[in-house]
Design a protein that fits this description.
Elements (H helix, E strand, L loop, with lengths): L4 E2 L7 E9 L6 E4 L2 E11 L7 E8 L2 E4 L21 E10 L7 E9 L5 E12 L1
Parallel strand pairs: 3-9
Antiparallel strand pairs: 1-9, 2-4, 4-7, 5-6, 5-8, 8-9
């Protein structure tokens, strides 16, 4: 698995066990326009929550630009809700790279928050968008 960075805010309500982005054999991940990438995060929850919601950003020069994903609902992304304390979950999603995106280097920041808007997980990975 790739070495992904944890976000500074950390994960108050959960802890990450593994992050997989595929296909991405080396860092920064080369993200080809018009392609979708698979995201798989295994995490353990420290709390109970009815739901979960993903927020994805592209971080450039310390500015977070929202990155739209087709399915922000964590309960429709492999997580069995309600989330239970002490359980491990496998979160699965897709990161679509649109053809109109600029060819740039940036950091993808992926957060999953619970009902209280607290962090279940947060990780970052450097990427290079390319045609």
């Amino acid at each position: 698995p790739l070495r992904t960075g944890l976000c500074l805010a950390g994960s108050k309500d959960g802890s990450i066990q593994e992050v997989n982005v595929s296909p991405c054999p080396t860092q920064p991940c080369l993200l080809h326009k018009g392609t979708s990438y698979s995201i798989n995060v295994t995490f353990a929850s420290k709390i109970e929550s009815q739901g979960s919601k993903a927020k994805v950003y592209g971080e450039m020069m310390h500015v977070d630009i929202p990155f739209p994903i087709p399915e922000p609902d964590g309960c429709k992304s492999g997580i069995q809700c309600p989330i239970q304390k002490g359980h491990s979950y496998s979160y699965l999603n897709k990161l679509p790279v649109k053809s109109e995106y600029p060819s740039i280097k940036l950091i993808v920041k992926w957060e999953l928050v619970d009902d209280q808007d607290q962090m279940l997980f947060c990780w970052k990975i450097p990427v290079q968008i390319t045609s």
